[in-house]
Amino acid sequence: MTTASDTIRVVIPLTIRKRNGRPKILPPEDAGMADGRSQDPHVLRAIARAWSWRRKLESGAATTIQDIAAAEKLSDRFVGRMMRLAYLSPEVLERLVIKRVPPALSLSDLAAVAERPWAEQMDAVFGQCEGCEGCEGCEGNDALCQGPLLILASHPAQR
């Protein structure tokens, strides 16, 4: 029989999100990154391209998305979809580009989020919980939410 003193419970706050079709464990926001380069380079490159394309359209260097697609040798559908990244909210862009916080979404989902109002984008991109499923301690308050918790136990019966 196992007593409470035989069991060690370790609780690690983390978020599990799919990126590029694979599960990825994201650390809590307050966990500092050692090298500051946690951001996926594809996300940074896509945002830079989107802003470059937006500037070309605004300056008149290109008149349509089809012009950009032809110059870049890409499909106009892809260019149009990725151009949405240039319309992400300033708060989302700051966290992605400056603070290097990885998004909880794939790149194509991130582009789709850009169509939402700015007020909704932060929760959609960084995976704040909706309804606090799998979360402990926040009691429905998204501001306190840490995301799902991974619970590890030292006793084999509790694994």
UniProtKB/TrEMBL annotation:
It comes from the Bacteria. This is Putative phage-related protein. It comes from Blastochloris viridis.
